[in-house]
Amino acid sequence: MESKTALITGASRGIGKSIKEILSKDEIEIISPTRNELDLSSSESIDKFLSQVSADIDIIINNAGILKVGEHNEFSSDDFHEILQVNVVAPFKIISGFVEKMKVQNFGRIVNISSVWGQKSKKGRTLYSSSKAALDALTRSLAIEFASYNILINSVAPGYIETDMLKQCNTEEELSIIRDTIPMKRFGKKTEIAELVKFLSSENNSYITGQIFTIDGGYTCK
Fold first, then answer.
1. Active-site residue 128, yes or no?
2. H or E segment to which residue 126 belongs
3. Half-sphere exposure of 152 toward its Cβ, with a 13 Å CA cutoff?
4. Using CA atoms, how far apart are residues 114 and 120, in angstroms rounded to an integer?
5. Do 185 and 177 contact (CB within 8 A), yes or no?
6. What is the pLDDT confidence band of residue 1, given thresholds at 50, 70 and 90?
7. How many domains does the chain have?
8. Mind giving me the DSSP string for 43-88?
9. CB count in 10 Å sphere of residue 6
10. Can you tell me whether residue 172 is helix, strand or coil?
């Protein structure tokens, strides 16, 4: 994998940063644009970024996303369009921008970072759950289209992962309540997500495609 180049969105913190660090250890060249370089909420920004990348991209990690929490009547259609743009349309455009070269190379690995909320939901997750379910559907559909070119695409769906955002959005009491709902009674580690992404992105993965890998300590089994 030393000669491979990976594009990772949302790599400045959290899970994305951990993925970047782990892939870098394998001497994979990393392209991780800042928001100024690639604004996923803007199709024009995505098009501009795609036109400026000269490297052949072998691996795509669509990690960046946005979360909007609230009941359906608290949001407008503009809010829905925004979350779909960032969480679904942007990954589609990025994949479409690089996949033709992958076909020529007869190699490509794509991992979309989804969420357990694409499989189940709870109050306040209408927009987010819809967007992640759509991302998983995109993964399965493109897997069929790309399989004959040795381009494998999968989703990784984390549950509650120990990140700064989790701590910022919940009090210690709330974190304790959430932890008790997880059969393993702990939050996942960022490196546990990153290690799976590393395998799915590698040449060691030669037959897995179109799958949704849930990493949640058993949360969705209940």
1. yes
2. helix 126-146
3. 17
4. 12
5. no
6. low
7. 1
8. HHHHHHHHHH--SPP-EEEE-------S-GGG--HHHHHHHHIIII
9. 25
10. helix
Distance CA 199, CA 191 (A): 12
Single out the catalytic residue among 128, 149, 160, 219: 128
Q: Considering the entire predicted model, what is its pTM? A: 0.96
**Which residues, other chains included, contact 79 with Cβ-Cβ below 8 Å and sequence gap of 6+?**
68, 127
What is the rounded distance in angstroms from the CA atom of residue 85 to the CA atom of residue 42? Answer: 8
* Residue recorded with tokens 């990976």: 6
Domain with residue 46: its CATH number is 3.40.50.720
Per-residue model confidence as pLDDT tens digits over 115-136:
999 999 888 889 999 999 999 9
DSSP helix/strand/coil, 189? coil
Look at residue 168 in the predicted model and tell me its pLDDT: 82
- Residue 158 is inside which H or E element, if any? strand 151-158
pLDDT higher at 73 or 130: 130
Residue 1, both tokens: 């994998």
Given a contact cutoff of 8 angstroms between Cβ atoms, the answer to whether 218 and 185 are in contact is no
Rounded CA-CA distance 6/57 in Å is: 6
Domain limits for position 23:
5-221
Q: Please state, in angstroms and rounded to a whole number, the distance separating the CA atoms of residues 94 and 90.
A: 6
* Both tokens assigned to 185: 């009674």
Strand order in the sheet with 151-158: 29-31, 5-8, 59-62, 108-113, 151-158, 212-215
List the beta bridge partners of residue 213: 156
